[in-house]
């Protein structure tokens, strides 16, 4: 839902004519030089150095790492299985044991008799999985469209952009809902739905970023050298235009986690009601808001913190890649 | 100016046309086809065949689309599978509720967001700035339905200050001429009805307005920061122009440009958010009806509502662009 603000400035191209295009393999987390010297480094290496100095980036990265670890280690650290209902007999329509009220269940039970802590841990797995897969789908789809539009121009560009306009004329969540309705209920439907609804943003971003680079001297230089159009587009234009797209992808991870929760909150999740998924847990917490608010608050908090992690990371990445802040 | 508006309106036609094709194909690709969607999973093959015959689902796709489009153009959007009432009527009776809600949310978001963003920019780097940045970050990462839960729990359930759901207390027995409850109350001068309808708007409105609020704060802050140190502001100061005049004419007016665009962009968010907030607060608007339509696969409703929403959404975006050129003479020249 959080349709974040598109970055106002594109990622920096090479600072001067003749600078070699940055190595597309040198993404953050790659082999960025450790020393503080910024001169003579690739755009991404530089960005990485700046990221490591930014407390917001550190916080964001720590949150993301923590949730990733929890998601991956869920089978090891969760006291009960994802669908287990160990306290089925303890729950009655009017009483749901809360945090600390029942031995062996530190956070209490949910209305179905599931262990809340285990549910939250398993929920991290499914939420992050949906977030990553759907963002990946959107990224790939959007990049293909953006690349075709930006690379070919002309009628291909017009056609693709009209199509993107149509998709953009429907609010994001509604688009996702319509797609999910076709695919039927379930986790896969949600992933595809969110992925497709993210396609327009990526397509537009990559296209406009490529267009802004097209007139650059290094493109002219590559063309003058007699490189084919495909080579110029793929190994010169694309690596230099991809910055804003990467930033947006990080931010989309946050919205994807939120949107996934929203879709399953709207009842598109499918499966059994007691499935361990944060959005679903919120849905079923609605009726018990008066007697067991923790059933709504804890999964909601998990969603918010995960989204916060990705947002902080994305914003810092944008700042680090912004040529304006680079000069300082 | 008029030409620009005309051109933009003309561009709307292919967009909506394309959308209608997509929506048409969408219904045809529903699991089990439109007949099953109409009758449910347990329909007998004979019933399906009868429906296919009756609604012309056996015709070639192009012919079917022609019929569908012809109906759309004459304002026939079909009937809701659940209520049996025309989709257009369902939309018309519910849209005022959503309009009241989104208007409340938008007024809240703009009314609080712009001053807060300005305040943050004026105190950049100090606690006021950090507080607003922190709050706006919170507004972005907290899911709107979760926020709705929190507000409902604190103010409606725990404190009991505000109603938990609905649009108006049925015991008030208000007279209704339109579906705008606030407007009705004002027209009939039933002030208790106005007040009650307003109280019912507060919680869903705040929940819905928080994300746009957060984004408006951020954009205003960034935009004011950029303008504040511009040469022309310094010149204005040097000339001895009063602080109020500098703020209103030199800083705010220029800083409002990106903010205007952002407000327009928030409308999609508001509509999506309305689906969620109206569900939490059982607020009887298009959002909640859409949610039920999703749930029961009431496809004529989904189809129709999506077209209406896309139309409204596009028109509002057009309006934003027009207002943009009213604020900024430079845009007009281009």
Structure description:
The complex is a heterodimer of chains A (328) and B (334). Chain A is mainly alpha-helical and 328 residues long. Chain A has 13 helices and no strands. Chain A has helices at 43-53, 55-72, 74-77, 116-152, 154-168, 172-183, 187-214, 217-224, 229-241, 243-265, 278-285, 294-321, 323-326. In chain A, helix 7 (187-214) packs across helix 9 (229-241), helix 8 runs antiparallel to helix 9 and helix 11 (278-285) runs antiparallel to helix 12 (294-321). Chain A is elongated. Chain B has 334 residues and is mainly alpha-helical. Helix content of chain B is 78%, strand content 0%. Chain B has helices at residues 2-28, 33-39, 45-55, 61-73, 87-122, 127-141, 144-158, 181-188, 191-228, 231-238, 243-280, 286-296, 299-327, 329-333. At the A-B interface, helix 5, helix 6, helix 10 and helix 12 of A face helix 1, helix 6, helix 7, helix 9 and helix 11 of B.
Structure, briefly:
The complex is a heterodimer of chains A (328) and B (334). By secondary structure, chain A is mainly alpha-helical. Chain A has helices spanning 43-53, 55-72, 74-77, 116-152, 154-168, 172-183, 187-214, 217-224, 229-241, 243-265, 278-285, 294-321, 323-326.
Q: What structural category do the secondary elements of chain B indicate?
A: mainly alpha
For the terminal residues of chain B, how far apart are their CA atoms?
Answer: 11 Å
The main pleated sheet of chain A reads as: none
Spatial extent as radius of gyration of chain B? 24 Å
> What's the overall average pLDDT of chain A, rounded?
76
**Alpha-carbon distance between the two ends of chain A:** 33 Å
Tell me the series of helices and strands of chain A, N- to C-terminal: HHHHHHHHHHHHH
How many strand units of chain B?
Answer: 0
Strand content of chain A: under 5%
Task: Enumerate how many helices of chain A there are, as a single number.
Answer: 13
Query: Biggest sheet of chain B, in brief?
Result: none
Helical residues, percent of chain B: over 70%
Shape of chain B: globular
Count of individual helical segments of chain B: 14
What's the order of the H and E elements of chain B? HHHHHHHHHHHHHH
Number of strands of chain A: 0
In terms of DSSP E residues, the strand content of chain B is under 5%
Radius of gyration of chain A: 23 Å
Largest interface by Cβ-Cβ < 8 Å: A-B, 45 and 53 residues
Low-confidence stretches of chain A: 1-38
